[in-house]
Design a protein that fits this description.
Layout lengths: L2 H9 L30 H24 L3 H4 L9 H35 L4 H14 L5 H5 L5 H19 L1 H13 L3 H18 L3 H18 L10 H19 L6 H14 L5 H27 L14 H11 L5 H18 L1 H4 L3 H13 L15 H20 L1 H12 L8 H14 L7 H19 L3 H9 L13 H7 L6 H24 L1 H5 L11
Helix pairs in contact: 2-4, 4-5, 4-18, 5-18, 7-12, 7-15, 7-17, 8-9, 8-14, 9-11, 9-13, 10-11, 10-23, 11-13, 12-21, 12-22, 13-24, 15-17, 18-21, 19-21, 20-21, 20-22, 20-24, 21-22
């Protein structure tokens, strides 16, 4: 569209079409299914081609060829978990070391397949489960039972409840209402999305679902302020998309129910301490940290990375915000189902936040909520309206089965002990050195790993093993490591929301890397400061063990 055609359309209150003949203010144009699918790069295709043969080769080498000394000469005193000790006594040292070799081979092969995406993640998990059974690492009952893990049920119920919010339109209504009520100018629009992301994170455990809800809204706002896809990029568009990507993930990190990876980490830590990581524990520790990081991201984006010119702070398309008002009006008045959805979720959130008082687990609370939501006549959604991504659940089941294999072989603890013994680090290593190392590995591993669940599965058990070796409380190292799970916003392949929002073509790879990496470094430094201050106050960091300052 030429400048003259654009002006004529504006003056005649006609839709302003872009060069592709598309109305940039039509929210339906920004639904996920309408976004173009990004082609894999040459490097990604190469990885996918070599992934399967490389995984097979690595499995054969570590299972049958390479004999690692630390797996052949296992000291019973280095075995940490009770399950592993029982297994060691039952089958003997030789069989136990062979199980560890199989476990390591399966783990390395699965990591290769997950990273290269040579097979879909869920298919890798299915192969992983049956391989653990056929090699004798896990009995069938224990391997197959992971699909019934209580965290899996919490995930299923959370998807049912999230579907309730989406189907009734409550989530969309809240986001539109808040933007129209408080988004009076460019600055307040960005601040409004901080609040919106935080509130939605308390109710929706899938970061991709939040991205799908918010994407059409902030893309229309970006168009109103003159941002265009492709060659028409401007700092408003870069900032609003990348800040939302940041906040979608940081919001998830504020709640243990914010993502399946958080729930998995909490389950692993709970199993190691024979107790629970409560919803309230995670909330008190991370809510202020994550909200604080959102505001830091806002300041850096607006002042350093994507400063918006004075003229860009004014709407560029006449009647743009009115289009959002029209979308809001289409929703009509709140119906009975929306009101019931709000009541159910507020009740669930209240019970989650007070779980230490009543002792009812987050899974049980979500179970009751899901049942109520699905009740005929009384409920809100029908089963056919529920969007449960079973491929993600199968992937998670594989990760939990891998965790069961770690537990029965004690491979993480044995490997950690061998590593520290070989590099000559004694048992008197300062707590803060271990804290810095483990949290750094967790946060920066997000640059190369595709899955938060996979990172939780790898690094949380390592943190548990390190804490056990050096005699520190498990939560003092494992929880701060788990708190770094959600920093997956730097590169497009780091998370599903990152991949989704990259398809908007509103920013470049370098834009995302510079802003995201800066926030990642700040998040790590803040985690260190919290370890000495806020986490100590909460009892996560024991008195007298940090001392970095």
């Amino acid at each position: 569209m030429t400048k003259e055609e654009h002006n004529d359309a504006v003056n005649n209150d006609q839709p302003v079409l872009n060069n592709n003949g598309v109305d940039p203010l039509d929210m339906h144009n920004y639904r996920i299914e309408h976004l173009p699918k990004r082609e894999k790069s040459g490097f990604e295709k190469w990885l996918a081609h070599i992934g399967l043969p490389l995984a097979i080769m690595v499995f054969i080498l570590f299972a049958f060829v390479i004999e690692l000394p630390f797996l052949q000469n296992i000291d019973p005193d280095t075995i940490v978990s009770l399950t592993a000790q029982v297994e060691y006594e039952r089958i003997g040292s030789v069989a136990f070391s062979r199980s560890n070799s199989y476990m390591l081979a399966i783990f390395l092969a699965a990591i290769i397949l997950w990273i290269t995406q040579a097979l879909p993640n869920y298919q890798t998990s299915l192969i992983l489960i049956i391989t653990l059974v056929l090699t004798g690492v896990l009995p069938e009952e224990k391997a197959y039972a992971q699909l019934g893990h209580r965290v899996m049920w919490l995930n299923i119920m959370s998807f049912i409840l999230a579907s309730m919010l989406v189907a009734t339109g409550v989530a969309k209504r809240f986001a539109l209402w808040f933007i129209l009520r408080f988004g009076k100018n460019a600055g307040s629009i960005f601040l409004s999305f901080i609040v919106i992301n935080t509130v939605l994170s308390a109710f929706i455990s899938a970061t991709t679902a939040k991205a799908a809800i918010l994407l059409p809204i902030f893309m229309v706002i970006a168009a109103v302020y003159g941002a265009r896809q492709g060659e028409g990029k401007n700092n408003f568009g870069r900032s609003i998309v990348l800040q939302n990507l940041l906040n979608i993930n940081l919001g998830a990190g504020a709640f243990v129910t914010g993502s399946g990876a958080n729930l998995l980490a909490a389950a692993l830590i709970g199993g190691a301490i024979d107790g629970y990581v409560y919803f309230s524990d995670w909330l008190f520790a991370m809510f202020p940290v994550m909200v604080g990081l959102m505001f830091v991201g806002y300041i850096l984006a607006m002042k350093v990375f994507f400063p918006i010119k004075k003229e860009e702070r004014l709407p560029q398309i006449k009647g743009g915000m009115q289009r959002l008002q029209m979308e809001y009006k289409k929703l009509g008045k709140m119906g009975p189902n929306e009101i019931k959805a709000v009541i159910i979720f507020l009740a669930i959130l209240g019970l989650w936040a007070t779980d230490r008082l009543h002792g009812v687990s987050a899974t049980a609370v979500a179970f009751v909520g899901g049942i109520v939501a699905l009740l005929p006549r009384v409920g809100i959604v029908k089963w056919n309206e529920v969007d449960i991504p079973w491929h993600l659940l199968l992937f998670s089941a594989g990760a939990y089965t891998l965790g069961a294999g770690f537990g029965i072989t004690d491979l993480p603890s044995i490997s950690v002990n061998a590593f520290f013994d070989n590099i000559g680090i004694g048992d008197q290593t300062a707590f803060w050195k271990l804290y810095l190392l483990l949290t750094a590995v967790m946060v920066y591993s997000a640059l190369v790993f595709q899955s938060k669940t996979m990172r939780a599965m790898i690094f949380v058990p390592i943190a548990i093993g390190v804490a056990s070796r050096f005699g520190f409380p498990v939560v003092s190292l494992a929880l701060p490591v788990a708190f770094m799970i959600e920093h997956v916003y730097v590169l497009p392949f780091n998370s599903k929301p990152a991949a989704l929002l990259y398809e908007t073509d509103m920013y470049t790879l370098s834009n995302a890397f510079r802003f995201g990496f800066a926030m990642m470094v700040i998040a790590w430094v803040l985690n260190i400061i919290m370890g000495e201050t806020w986490f100590r106050f909460l009892g996560i960091t024991p008195d007298g063990v940090f001392g970095i300052f």
